[in-house]
Amino acid sequence: SQWQCDAVAICSGLHVLPNIPHIDGLGNVPTVMHSSQFKHSKQFGEGKDVLILGSGETGMDLAYLAVKSDTNSVTLSHRDGFHCGLKRAPDPIVFGQKPSLREKPNVPYDVGASSLFDTAYVHPVLRDSALAWGYWDKFAKWTAWVATGTQLGYDQWIGGVSPERYHASKLFFNKSTNAIPYISAPYRPAQPSLINKIRANIIDVPSVDTKSRTIDLAPWPQGIDSSGIIRFIKNGRPEAEHMKQVVCKPDVVILATGYTQDFLFLDASYPRLSDANVRQVWKESDPSVAFIGFVRPSFGAIPPLSELQAQLWILNLLGRLPTRLSHEDHYRLQVPKSSRIQYGVDHESYAYQLAKDMGSAPTFSDMAARGWKVAACWALSANVNPKFRMVGPWKWDGAEQVMMTEIWETITRRRGPWGHFTMSILPVLYFGTLSAVFFVFFNILDGLMLIWKLLTLDADV
Question: 360: how many CB neighbours lie within 10 A of its CB?
Fold first, then answer.
C-alpha cells in the first residue's frame, strides 16, 4: 500500500547497523560478537579471557561487567584514548569530612550549569570563539585533577586522548566510570607526589578497592595470528609497552564499536543525512524530509534535542518561523575530518540555538516580570526543554510549574566546589565580563565607523 505524505520525518536513530571493523585474523578467535548481541554475563563464559574492542561507554560497561564476572582476564582495546567524566558532580571528602549520606546526591552535570552568559546574552564573537570552549576544557581537566589527582579523566591514570585531540571541543565524554579503577590500578602511583598528597588532604574522592582485579588496557589490534594471539599496534604508549609483556589470546572478543545508519527505505530522490545542512535537520532545498534525532551531544541526551528539532521543523513547514535561519556552526563539535562520528554537538549551545530560531528562548524581561525566583531559575538552570515552553509558539501553561519545582531543585542541589562556584558563579562572571567587553568594544567601533563614513561622505560631496 502507498500513503501520500506532504512531509516525512526520519526517526530511525543513530544505532541501526552494527559497525564491524576489519581486523585480520578475527575469525581465529573462538567467540566473536558485537555488543548488540550481548545480553547476559553468562556469555563471557567461566574462566575465559575476554577482549573488548572499543573504549566508549558500551565498552566500559562491558569491561566492568566482565571484570566482576568469573573471567580469567579482561582486556580493553582503544584507538586513541578517552576521557572519563562523571555523570554527576562528585561528593568529595573535604578536610577529612565525609559527605552526609542523608543528602541527595549532587546534580548530574548535564543539568548542572548556568545558561546565563554561556548561551543566553552571550556576544556572537565570544560564542563563536575558542574562549567559550576554553573554559569548559579547563573545567573538565582541572576538576578531574582536584578530585582524583589526574587530568586525564576522573581517576584515570592511563589511556589519555592524544594531545592534538584532547580538547573539550573535540571530545565525547565517557560517562561510564565503573571500570576506571580496574584500568588505572596498575598505573596509579604507589607514592603520590607531594602536591597530590597536599591536594588529597584538602579534598579527595577515594579510589575504589578493586581487590587485586584489573583490566588490561591495550592499543587497537594490528592483527590476530592463526593461534588466536593478538598483535597490538605499537604506538609508544605506556599500555602498549605493557602489552608487549602479555600474551593476549582471548576466548571471547566483543566488538563495542558502535553503529552506522541505514536508509535503504529511501530511494535516490530523497536527501540523505549528510545533506541536512539546516541545523542538521533538513536539506535547505527540500524541507519536506527531516532527520530527527541524528545528532549526538558531547554531554547531554539525544531525546530533548529531538523534541526541539521536531518543533523547529514543523514551524518551518508551516511557514511560522519568526526569521530566516542563518548558517551557524558554533554548536558543532570540532572533530577531525577522519572521525567516524561527524554529528557531534554541544548540547547547551545547540538547544539554545534551536530555541532562538523558533522564538522560544525567554528574555530576562520575560522572566523578571514573573518574579525573582522565575528569573533566577531561568538564569541559573541549564537549557532544559521546559525553559523553552514558557514563551513562543510552543508555550505551555505547565512549564513554569516544572521550572519552579523539578528544575529549581537542580539548582538548589548543587554543592561543593563543583556546584555553584565552578558551574554558576565562575562561568557567569567570566562569560558575562567578556561579553560586556565585546559589546562595548564593537559598539564603539561601529560608532567610529559611522563617524568615518559621514566624514568621508561630506568630503565626497
Answer: 24
Convert the pLDDT of each residue in 297-343 to its tens digit.
Answer: 998 899 999 999 999 999 999 999 999 999 999 999 998 887 888 89
118-141 pLDDT tens trace? 999 999 999 999 898 999 999 999
Supply φ then ψ for residue 415, to 5 degrees: -155, 170
Residue at 189 is within a domain: no
Q: Bridge-partner residues for 25, per DSSP?
A: none
Phi, psi dihedrals of residue 63, rounded to the nearest 5°: -65, -40
Q: Within a domain: residue 398?
A: no
Domain that holds residue 334: 1-16+264-360
Angle between helices 347-358 and 302-317 (to 10 degrees): 20
pTM of the model: 0.92
pLDDT digits (tens, 9 = 90+) for 213-252: 999 999 999 999 999 999 999 999 999 999 999 999 999 9
Residue 345 in domain: yes
Cell of 176: 561510564
246 part of a folded domain: no
- Measured at the alpha carbon of residue 121, what is the angle toward residues 118 and 127, in degrees to the nearest 5? 55
Of 406, 430, 312, give the one whose Cα is nearest residue 111. 406
CA distance 96 to 86: 22
Residue 378 half-sphere exposure toward CB, CA atoms < 13 A: 25
- What is the rounded CA–CA span in Å between residue 110 and residue 105? 14
Cβ partners under 8 Å of residue 392, min gap 6? 355, 358, 359, 360, 361
Q: Which residues contact 58 (CB under 8 A, 6 or more apart)?
A: 35, 176, 256, 258
Q: Report the C-alpha gap between 263 and 136 in whole angstroms.
A: 36
- The total number of structural domains in the chain stands at 1
Counting residues of the chain whose pLDDT is more than 90, the rounded percentage is 80
Alpha-carbon distance 29 to 31, whole Å?
6
